Amino acid sequence: MKLLPTPEQAAALEATLRAANKAADLVSRIAFQQRCFRNFDLRKHTYEQVKATFGLAAQAAQHVIKKVCDAYRTLHANLAAGNLGKRGSARRIKAESTPISFRPGAAHPYDDRCLSWQHGDRTVSIWTTIGRLRGITFTGSAQQLALLAEHRKGESDLVWRDGMWFLHATVEVSDAPINAPDGFCGVDLGIANIATTSDGIRHSGKHLNAVRHRNRELRRRLQAKATKSAKRLLKRRRRKEARFAADVNHRIAKQIVTEAERTGQGIALEDLQGIRDRVRLRKPQRVTLHSWSFHQLGAFIAYKAARAGTAVIHVDPSYTSQQCSHCGHVDSCNRPDQETFICTSCGFAEHADVNAARNIASRGEAGWAVRHAA
After folding, report:
1. Pairing mode of beta strands 266-270, 312-315
2. Which whole number is the average pLDDT over 39-54?
């Protein structure tokens, strides 16, 4: 929800965020020095000091300590998973040897004791360091307002971004019962074609890749120029490409799920976890791979399918692009170029991405049958 505070209200919200994040920095340093990362234990070391030093209310101080513990829990999980490099790497050493720091304007969580919603008036009442502010107007789309009024649950995050104020509220909507699928629609994710279904529908990535290339070149020129106006333009354009890519992924996911729901099929997706670590590409191609938001598209398809009651299954993507969907023959020579598939065994010919999507669909049917054999 976007907040529309008056200048006085905005100043109070900004002061509150800055105080909360200064307190979080202090708690983080103490946690790092004491090697104490559990919420209950860390509270003994920091609770009274945070309240006295930064003027935070009891509940706000609790949230600051919890935010720090959550940040360290995430850091330790990333270290254990190897997401910050191997042991001895510069990135991992830096992450392990310094306490976590928080931006002055970083988001801060609020629960129902510190924040209340007045849906009829479209206002919120929120705690700040100068007292409780009442009557702050919020706005959003009709769908968002309806979801907020009916399904809001848990904490909300106060976010300050580019001079604008937002409350990120969590809504909990029950998933529809999963219908027994009548076959599966395979979805092959790629770069030239963002998504290709086993029904032969291709969602081209040409426009998206062109936009990304244009933005990349513009960023390069502006960074090289390094004037105040260039930096101002860079700041204004940040996140623009991410919003564009998310919009494209939302529209593609909606089309795929709507078609699967109409035909009564399930959706089979590739399990592409860790693909960036497995795939080796030439240097010019790495930027394209690392800006490929396949995980986001898969997540959008999964949650839209859950709300529609459509079954989703993830399958092993190995050799789906080299296997013939007609006879099952696997050979790297079956795919002479990006879009051509000609089986060297039976002569079957098809667009390469459609052929891969059909292989994914058949694996989805087999995997679903095994999973529900009992």
Report:
1. parallel
2. 93
